Protein backbone atom coordinates (compact mmCIF):
# COMPACT_ATOMS: atom_id res chain seq x y z
CA UNK A 1 0.00 0.00 0.00
CA UNK A 2 1.83 3.05 -1.28
CA UNK A 3 0.06 5.57 0.93
CA UNK A 4 0.79 3.68 4.11
CA UNK A 5 4.40 3.13 3.10
CA UNK A 6 4.80 6.83 2.41
CA UNK A 7 3.43 7.72 5.82
CA UNK A 8 5.81 5.29 7.47
CA UNK A 9 8.79 6.80 5.72
CA UNK A 10 7.84 10.46 6.12
CA UNK A 11 5.81 10.59 9.32
CA UNK A 12 5.79 14.05 10.94
CA UNK A 13 5.93 12.36 14.30
CA UNK A 14 9.63 11.84 13.73
CA UNK A 15 10.19 15.57 14.29
CA UNK A 16 8.60 15.56 17.73
CA UNK A 17 10.40 15.18 21.02
CA UNK A 18 10.50 11.47 22.08
CA UNK A 19 8.53 12.17 25.27
CA UNK A 20 5.74 13.84 23.27
CA UNK A 21 5.66 10.92 20.85
CA UNK A 22 5.26 8.34 23.61
CA UNK A 23 2.80 10.23 25.80
CA UNK A 24 0.53 10.91 22.80
CA UNK A 25 1.01 7.37 21.53
CA UNK A 26 -2.62 6.33 21.00
CA UNK A 27 -4.02 9.78 20.06
CA UNK A 28 -1.02 10.38 17.83
CA UNK A 29 -1.48 7.02 16.13
CA UNK A 30 -5.17 7.45 15.35
CA UNK A 31 -4.65 9.96 12.54
CA UNK A 32 -2.21 7.51 10.96
CA UNK A 33 -5.03 5.00 10.43
CA UNK A 34 -3.87 4.04 6.90
CA UNK A 35 -0.70 2.62 8.47
CA UNK A 36 -2.18 0.42 11.17
CA UNK A 37 -5.11 -0.75 9.06
CA UNK A 38 -2.69 -1.72 6.29
CA UNK A 39 -0.43 -3.54 8.75
CA UNK A 40 -3.45 -5.41 10.16
CA UNK A 41 -4.56 -6.54 6.70
CA UNK A 42 -1.02 -7.65 5.88
CA UNK A 43 -0.93 -9.72 9.08
CA UNK A 44 -4.07 -11.59 8.03
CA UNK A 45 -2.81 -12.10 4.47
CA UNK A 46 0.53 -13.42 5.75
CA UNK A 47 -1.17 -15.76 8.20
CA UNK A 48 -3.30 -17.40 5.52
CA UNK A 49 -0.96 -17.11 2.54
CA UNK A 50 -1.24 -20.22 0.41
CA UNK A 51 -4.56 -21.23 1.98
CA UNK A 52 -7.52 -21.66 -0.36
CA UNK A 53 -10.14 -20.47 2.14
CA UNK A 54 -7.95 -18.00 4.01
CA UNK A 55 -9.67 -16.33 7.01
CA UNK A 56 -12.81 -18.33 6.25
CA UNK A 57 -11.12 -21.19 8.08
CA UNK A 58 -11.85 -19.23 11.27
CA UNK A 59 -15.51 -19.12 10.29
CA UNK A 60 -15.55 -22.88 9.73
CA UNK A 61 -13.71 -23.51 13.01
CA UNK A 62 -16.21 -21.44 14.96
CA UNK A 63 -19.15 -23.01 13.16
CA UNK A 64 -17.96 -26.56 13.85
CA UNK A 65 -17.09 -25.72 17.47
CA UNK A 66 -20.39 -24.08 18.41
CA UNK A 67 -22.33 -26.71 16.47
CA UNK A 68 -20.79 -29.54 18.46
CA UNK A 69 -20.81 -27.77 21.82
CA UNK A 70 -24.41 -26.60 21.39
CA UNK A 71 -25.61 -30.16 20.94
CA UNK A 72 -23.52 -31.55 23.83
CA UNK A 73 -23.74 -28.80 26.44
CA UNK A 74 -27.27 -27.86 25.46
CA UNK A 75 -28.27 -31.39 26.47
CA UNK A 76 -26.02 -31.42 29.55
CA UNK A 77 -27.41 -28.10 30.82
CA UNK A 78 -30.93 -28.97 29.63
CA UNK A 79 -31.19 -25.75 27.61
CA UNK A 80 -33.40 -25.21 24.54
CA UNK A 81 -31.20 -25.26 21.45
CA UNK A 82 -32.84 -22.16 19.94
CA UNK A 83 -31.65 -20.16 22.96
CA UNK A 84 -28.38 -21.86 23.79
CA UNK A 85 -26.86 -22.03 20.28
CA UNK A 86 -27.02 -18.24 19.59
CA UNK A 87 -25.85 -17.51 23.15
CA UNK A 88 -22.86 -19.83 22.80
CA UNK A 89 -21.96 -18.48 19.35
CA UNK A 90 -22.10 -14.85 20.46
CA UNK A 91 -20.09 -15.70 23.56
CA UNK A 92 -17.32 -17.50 21.70
CA UNK A 93 -16.87 -14.96 18.92
CA UNK A 94 -16.70 -12.19 21.54
CA UNK A 95 -14.28 -14.14 23.71
CA UNK A 96 -12.00 -14.92 20.78
CA UNK A 97 -11.86 -11.21 19.97
CA UNK A 98 -11.06 -10.20 23.56
CA UNK A 99 -8.60 -12.96 24.42
CA UNK A 100 -6.89 -12.84 21.02
CA UNK A 101 -6.38 -9.09 21.30
CA UNK A 102 -4.98 -9.37 24.82
CA UNK A 103 -2.56 -12.18 23.93
CA UNK A 104 -1.31 -10.50 20.76
CA UNK A 105 -0.98 -7.14 22.54
CA UNK A 106 1.69 -8.75 24.71
CA UNK A 107 3.85 -9.12 21.59
CA UNK A 108 2.73 -5.92 19.86
CA UNK A 109 6.16 -4.29 20.29
CA UNK A 110 8.46 -7.30 20.21
CA UNK A 111 6.86 -8.55 16.98
CA UNK A 112 7.47 -5.14 15.37
CA UNK A 113 10.92 -4.49 16.79
CA UNK A 114 12.49 -3.65 13.42
CA UNK A 115 9.82 -1.06 12.62
CA UNK A 116 10.03 0.47 16.08
CA UNK A 117 13.80 0.86 15.84
CA UNK A 118 13.78 2.30 12.33
CA UNK A 119 10.52 4.21 11.90
CA UNK A 120 9.69 7.40 13.88
CA UNK A 121 6.08 6.42 14.47
CA UNK A 122 3.99 6.59 17.67
CA UNK A 123 4.20 3.13 19.18
CA UNK A 124 0.46 3.08 19.75
CA UNK A 125 0.18 2.17 16.06
CA UNK A 126 1.24 -1.39 16.84
CA UNK A 127 -1.47 -1.81 19.49
CA UNK A 128 -4.11 -0.43 17.11
CA UNK A 129 -2.76 -2.85 14.52
CA UNK A 130 -3.55 -5.75 16.87
CA UNK A 131 -7.05 -4.48 17.65
CA UNK A 132 -7.81 -3.88 13.97
CA UNK A 133 -6.60 -7.35 13.03
CA UNK A 134 -8.85 -9.01 15.57
CA UNK A 135 -11.76 -6.71 14.69
CA UNK A 136 -11.50 -7.94 11.09
CA UNK A 137 -11.44 -11.53 12.32
CA UNK A 138 -14.46 -10.76 14.52
CA UNK A 139 -16.28 -9.47 11.45
CA UNK A 140 -15.57 -12.78 9.69
CA UNK A 141 -16.81 -14.79 12.68
CA UNK A 142 -19.94 -12.66 12.85
CA UNK A 143 -21.09 -14.52 9.74
CA UNK A 144 -21.49 -17.66 11.87
CA UNK A 145 -23.68 -15.82 14.36
CA UNK A 146 -25.84 -14.39 11.56
CA UNK A 147 -26.40 -17.88 10.16
CA UNK A 148 -27.22 -19.31 13.62
CA UNK A 149 -29.56 -16.39 14.36
CA UNK A 150 -31.42 -16.95 11.08
CA UNK A 151 -31.72 -20.68 11.70
CA UNK A 152 -33.18 -20.25 15.18
CA UNK A 153 -35.30 -17.20 14.43
CA UNK A 154 -33.35 -14.63 16.45
CA UNK A 155 -34.20 -11.23 15.01
CA UNK A 156 -32.45 -7.89 15.64
CA UNK A 157 -34.23 -5.14 17.55
CA UNK A 158 -33.43 -1.70 18.94
CA UNK A 159 -31.25 -3.23 21.68
CA UNK A 160 -29.05 -4.73 18.96
CA UNK A 161 -27.81 -1.23 18.14
CA UNK A 162 -26.15 -1.14 21.57
CA UNK A 163 -23.48 -3.42 20.13
CA UNK A 164 -21.88 -0.27 18.66
CA UNK A 165 -21.17 1.54 21.97
CA UNK A 166 -20.52 -1.82 23.61
CA UNK A 167 -17.86 -2.73 21.07
CA UNK A 168 -16.38 0.79 21.22
CA UNK A 169 -16.11 0.61 25.01
CA UNK A 170 -14.45 -2.81 24.92
CA UNK A 171 -12.06 -1.79 22.14
CA UNK A 172 -11.03 1.33 24.05
CA UNK A 173 -10.20 -0.75 27.14
CA UNK A 174 -8.24 -3.21 25.00
CA UNK A 175 -6.32 -0.32 23.40
CA UNK A 176 -5.09 1.25 26.65
CA UNK A 177 -4.60 -2.03 28.52
CA UNK A 178 -2.92 -3.47 25.42
CA UNK A 179 -0.51 -0.54 25.39
CA UNK A 180 0.37 -1.20 29.02
CA UNK A 181 0.77 -4.94 28.41
CA UNK A 182 2.97 -4.36 25.38
CA UNK A 183 5.36 -2.20 27.42
CA UNK A 184 5.46 -4.59 30.38
CA UNK A 185 5.94 -7.66 28.16
CA UNK A 186 8.73 -5.95 26.23
CA UNK A 187 10.60 -5.74 29.53
CA UNK A 188 9.49 -9.00 31.13
CA UNK A 189 9.31 -11.74 28.50
CA UNK A 190 7.67 -14.30 30.82
CA UNK A 191 4.51 -12.23 31.24
CA UNK A 192 2.88 -13.39 27.95
CA UNK A 193 2.91 -16.99 29.17
CA UNK A 194 1.34 -15.94 32.45
CA UNK A 195 -1.35 -13.94 30.61
CA UNK A 196 -2.16 -16.93 28.39
CA UNK A 197 -2.64 -19.18 31.42
CA UNK A 198 -4.85 -16.60 33.13
CA UNK A 199 -7.06 -16.32 30.04
CA UNK A 200 -7.43 -20.10 29.82
CA UNK A 201 -8.77 -20.15 33.37
CA UNK A 202 -10.87 -17.03 32.79
CA UNK A 203 -12.69 -18.67 29.88
CA UNK A 204 -13.81 -21.53 32.10
CA UNK A 205 -15.08 -19.34 34.95
CA UNK A 206 -16.72 -16.69 32.77
CA UNK A 207 -20.33 -17.29 31.65
CA UNK A 208 -19.58 -18.20 28.04
CA UNK A 209 -20.58 -21.84 27.84
CA UNK A 210 -23.08 -21.46 30.66
CA UNK A 211 -25.61 -18.83 31.73
CA UNK A 212 -24.99 -16.61 34.70
CA UNK A 213 -28.30 -17.78 36.16
CA UNK A 214 -26.87 -21.31 36.41
CA UNK A 215 -24.68 -20.11 39.26
CA UNK A 216 -27.80 -19.90 41.39
CA UNK A 217 -27.28 -18.01 44.63
CA UNK A 218 -23.72 -17.24 43.53
CA UNK A 219 -24.76 -15.50 40.29
CA UNK A 220 -23.77 -12.15 41.81
CA UNK A 221 -20.14 -13.32 41.75
CA UNK A 222 -20.15 -12.82 37.98
CA UNK A 223 -20.40 -9.07 38.60
CA UNK A 224 -16.87 -9.19 40.02
CA UNK A 225 -15.52 -10.90 36.90
CA UNK A 226 -14.24 -8.19 34.50
CA UNK A 227 -14.33 -10.60 31.57
CA UNK A 228 -18.05 -11.14 32.10
CA UNK A 229 -18.70 -7.44 31.54
CA UNK A 230 -16.41 -7.30 28.50
CA UNK A 231 -18.24 -10.23 26.92
CA UNK A 232 -21.67 -9.02 28.00
CA UNK A 233 -21.17 -5.58 26.39
CA UNK A 234 -21.08 -7.24 22.96
CA UNK A 235 -22.96 -10.51 23.45
CA UNK A 236 -26.15 -9.10 25.01
CA UNK A 237 -26.89 -6.68 22.13
CA UNK A 238 -26.28 -9.48 19.63
CA UNK A 239 -28.88 -11.49 21.55
CA UNK A 240 -31.30 -8.56 21.34
CA UNK A 241 -30.88 -7.58 24.99
CA UNK A 242 -29.46 -4.46 26.61
CA UNK A 243 -26.37 -5.01 28.80
CA UNK A 244 -26.93 -4.38 32.49
CA UNK A 245 -26.18 -1.09 34.18
CA UNK A 246 -23.28 -2.75 35.98
CA UNK A 247 -21.71 -3.58 32.61
CA UNK A 248 -21.93 0.03 31.40
CA UNK A 249 -20.55 1.22 34.72
CA UNK A 250 -17.67 -1.22 34.43
CA UNK A 251 -16.84 -0.02 30.90
CA UNK A 252 -16.68 3.60 32.05
CA UNK A 253 -14.62 2.89 35.17
CA UNK A 254 -12.29 0.42 33.44
CA UNK A 255 -11.65 2.85 30.59
CA UNK A 256 -10.71 5.62 33.02
CA UNK A 257 -8.43 3.45 35.15
CA UNK A 258 -6.81 1.72 32.18
CA UNK A 259 -6.15 5.04 30.43
CA UNK A 260 -4.62 6.57 33.56
CA UNK A 261 -2.35 3.57 34.11
CA UNK A 262 -1.29 3.52 30.45
CA UNK A 263 -0.53 7.27 30.60
CA UNK A 264 1.56 6.81 33.76
CA UNK A 265 3.40 3.83 32.31
CA UNK A 266 4.09 5.63 29.04
CA UNK A 267 5.62 8.56 30.91
CA UNK A 268 7.86 6.26 32.90
CA UNK A 269 8.89 3.69 30.29
CA UNK A 270 7.49 4.62 26.89
CA UNK A 271 10.75 6.19 25.73
CA UNK A 272 12.62 2.96 26.52
CA UNK A 273 10.56 0.68 24.26
CA UNK A 274 12.98 0.96 21.32
CA UNK A 275 15.77 -0.28 23.59
CA UNK A 276 13.72 -3.06 25.17
CA UNK A 277 12.62 -4.72 21.94
Descriptive labels:
single chain; 277 residues; mainly alpha
Present the secondary structure layout.
Blueprint: H1 2-9, H2 18-23, H3 25-30, H4 33-47, H5 56-76, H6 81-106, H7 113-118, H8 124-151, H9 163-187, H10 191-205, H11 226-238, H12 245-269, H13 273-276
Helix pairs in contact: 1-4, 4-8, 5-6, 5-8, 6-8, 6-9, 6-10, 6-11, 8-9, 9-11, 9-12, 11-12
Low-confidence stretches: 9-23
Classify the secondary structure makeup into a structural class. Answer: mainly alpha
Q: What is the share of helical residues? A: over 70%
| String of helices and strands | HHHHHHHHHHHHH
| Number of distinct beta strands | 0
- Count of individual helical segments: 13
Proportion of β residues?
under 5%
Count of spatially separate domains = 1
Morphology = globular
What Rg is obtained from the alpha carbons, in whole angstroms? 20 Å
What's the pLDDT, averaged over the residues? 86
Largest sheet: none
> How many angstroms does the end-to-end distance come to?
26 Å
Amino acid sequence: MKGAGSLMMHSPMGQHHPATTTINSIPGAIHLWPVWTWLARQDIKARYRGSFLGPLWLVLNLGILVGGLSLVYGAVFDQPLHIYAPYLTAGFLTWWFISGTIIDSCAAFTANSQLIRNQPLPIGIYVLQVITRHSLLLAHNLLVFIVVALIFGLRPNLATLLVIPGFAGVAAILATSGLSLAIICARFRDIPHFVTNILQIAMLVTPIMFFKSMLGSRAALAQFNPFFHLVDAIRSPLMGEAPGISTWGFLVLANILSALFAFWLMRRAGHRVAYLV
